[in-house]
Amino acid sequence: LSAAELKAPGPALPEGPGKEAVTKMCTSCHGTAVFTGMRMSGTGWESEVGAMVEKGAQGSAEEIRAVVGYLAKNFGKTN
Ligand code: HEC
Fold it and tell me: Which residues line ligand 1 (CB under 6 A)?
């Protein structure tokens, strides 16, 4: 992705539980394109979200769980 693509809002997120938490936690620094193009297992998403928390993403333990669940469901390996 180019710098411009990173900054763009990116594709709309699929509806579902956890969408709000993702919107809140994951769209302040970059758009959705950064993660909607990826496919990872739950464990993969868990470590990716952990890496983003280290960069400064903020959310409660509950929100983090919701984000990991949402990403694994919508952008998981078996899709
Ligand atoms: C505090 C700013 C910030 C927030 C909030 C944030 N990110 Fe990121 N993210 C970055 C930066 C900066 C990069 C650029 C690449 C790098 O530095 O590794 C990035 C890159 C990525 C990448 C590309 C792969 C990688 O690791 O570089 C993915 C996937 C990603 N973010 C997912 C997420 C998800 C999911 C969330 C919500 C939990 C999130 N980001 C929230 C700053 C943030």
Answer: 25-26, 28-30, 34-35, 38, 48-49, 51-52, 55-57, 67, 71
